[in-house]
Automatic annotation (TrEMBL):
Keywords: ATP-binding, Nucleotide-binding, Nucleotidyltransferase, Transferase
SUPFAM superfamilies, sorted: Nucleotide-diphospho-sugar transferases, Trimeric LpxA-like enzymes
GO biological process: glycogen biosynthetic process
Gene field: APS2_1
Name of the featured protein: Inactive glucose-1-phosphate adenylyltransferase small subunit 2, chloroplastic
PROSITE patterns membership: ADP_GLC_PYROPHOSPH_2
InterPro entries in alphabetical order: ADP-Glc_PPase, ADP_Glu_pyroP_CS, NTP_transferase_dom, Nucleotide-diphossugar_trans, Trimer_LpxA-like_sf
CDD domains named in the record: ADP_Glucose_PP, LbH_G1P_AT_C
Length: 469
């Protein structure tokens, strides 16, 4: 089979082998592992775009005002596990891959060690020519800019020297902690057809939590007339519907920006602006730039609170068109290939659940639960309506054998409506049920908090035998 004229992959380490299946597999991966590797990161033919596609995605690894603590005590929002085997950032990167975006920059800063490691390990071997598919740009200091990134606009401005090295015409700005599936090609086509300087993605419907990023007022041609930041979230539903009828649409905080417009906005018109949404976009509107909106009607959720994170995981269990689909063959979800063994189930009763790789489930009952990788559940345990993140490693060796409470969920324990972070040690006959229906409680000293009635067991916490929460 002859290769397309624009197929210009160079032989590097690792180099790629072209196969008639239109897949790219690192030649450094042993043939016996090829099948396992491609199950997690098959590079579709769309991963190799035409040479004239000059769009770069800029993914922000963390946001401000997150209400995900304590899940974000040692990690950024984008690094949060989701649906057993994945991380939130995987959904955004997968959208780019499935939309033919070949250049992705991840700008990271707060608690970014876990996120940086995941991105580097998951996507560094996927390359176009000499260039990695995803490049991580961590916050840094230079003679021109010292200290942390002060916001999204400041981060882009300080990285322009990197971004200008490539023949990019448009930038696609993406938060890394949202869960959705979008064909960015449709967004880009709308941007180009309108000859816009900036195109914003907006929700075509409203919900109680859709106003987090403000609203755009549109005219009949979807041109943005005005932007209102952070409307009062206590507004009544009738008033919201009234707003929608007057062409106000909730922002998704996703933008396509023309490169020349971006440079002028950040260096000439707003050289001191820190936040892109609150300062740069309203500035572009006031300057009379061509700012248009693209309406999105699919599933979208903003992972900015414990309640939203819990809800998204629970929805991943359901087989409905109202939830994020993990099984869409036309828009697969990619992640790090870990080559874990299959989950071992011994006399367990499991219903309406998602089970990650490499678990040990022994004579337990699991219902309506997301079970993460390497989770160990002891005999007689009952888990309902919960998110179990699993473990980063298997236990083994003499040092581990001496630990009184091993990582996992002990025999006879009961868990309901809880989030169990990674590497937690729950002893035998523990009850995490919140029978008193406590809505808010901070008990970090004992390894847990309660928010919105959801019990969150902190990463690495030890819950002694017989404890009741």
């Amino acid at each position: 089979m002859s290769l397309p004229t624009w197929f210009n992959l160079k032989i590097n380490a690792p180099h790629y082998v072209y196969k008639p299946t239109s897949r790219l597999i690192p030649a450094s991966v042993p043939s016996k592992l090829n099948q396992s590797y491609t199950q997690h990161f098959e590079c579709p033919n769309s991963l190799i775009p035409p040479a004239d596609q000059n769009v770069a995605a800029i993914v922000f690894g963390d946001g401000s005002n997150s209400r995900l603590y304590p899940l974000t005590k040692r990690r950024s929002e984008s690094a949060l596990p989701i649906a057993g085997n994945y991380r939130l950032i995987d959904a955004v990167v997968s959208n780019c891959i499935n939309s033919n975006i070949r250049k992705i920059y991840a700008l990271t800063q707060f608690n970014s060690a876990s996120l940086n490691t995941h991105l580097s390990r998951a996507y560094s071997s996927a390359r176009i020519g000499n260039e990695a598919l995803v490049e991580v740009i961590a916050a840094y200091q230079s003679p021109e800019g010292k200290g942390w990134f002060q916001g999204t606009a400041d981060a882009i401005r300080r990285c322009l020297w990197v971004l200008e090295e490539y023949p990019i015409l448009e930038f696609l700005l993406l938060p890394g902690y949202h869960l959705y599936k979008m064909d960015f090609q449709e967004l880009l086509e709308a941007h180009w057809s309108n000859r816009a300087d900036i195109t914003v993605a907006v929700l075509s419907r409203t919900r109680d939590n859709d106003t987090e990023f403000g609203t755009f007022q549109l005219n009949s041609e979807n041109q943005v007339i005005a932007f209102k930041d952070n409307p009062d979230r206590r507004v009544q539903n009738s008033e919201k519907l009234k707003d929608i009828s007057h062409d106000n649409f909730a922002s998704m905080d996703i933008y396509v920006v023309n490169k020349d417009a971006m440079i002028k906005l950040l260096t000439e018109y707003h050289p001191l602006a820190n936040d892109f949404r609150r300062e740069v976009v309203p500035g572009a509107i006031s300057l009379g730039m061509n700012v248009y909106a693209h309406k999105f009607s699919g599933y979208w959720d903003d992972m900015r609170s414990i309640e939203a994170y819990y809800r998204a995981n629970m929805e991943s269990i359901k087989n409905t068109n109202k939830a994020y689909c993990l099984y869409d063959k036309d828009s697969p979800l990619y992640t790090l290939p870990r080559h874990l063994p299959p989950t071992q189930i011994t006399d367990a009763v499991i219903t309406d659940s998602v089970i990650g790789d490499g678990c040990f489930l022994n004579r337990c009952k699991i219902r309506g639960t997301v079970v993460g990788m390497r989770t160990r559940v002891g005999d007689g345990a009952i888990i309902e309506d919960s998110v179990i993140m699993g473990s980063d490693t298997y236990q083994g060796g003499r040092a581990e054998e001496d630990i009184h409470i091993p990582i996992g969920i002990g025999e006879g324990s009961q868990i309901r409506k809880a989030i169990i972070d990674k590497n937690v040690r729950i002893g035998k006959n523990v009850k995490i049920l919140n029978k008193e229906n406590v809505q808010e409680c901070n008990n970090e000293a004992n390894g847990y908090i309660i928010t919105g009635g959801i019990v969150v067991i902190m990463k690495g916490a030890i819950i002694p035998n017989g404890s009741i929460i």
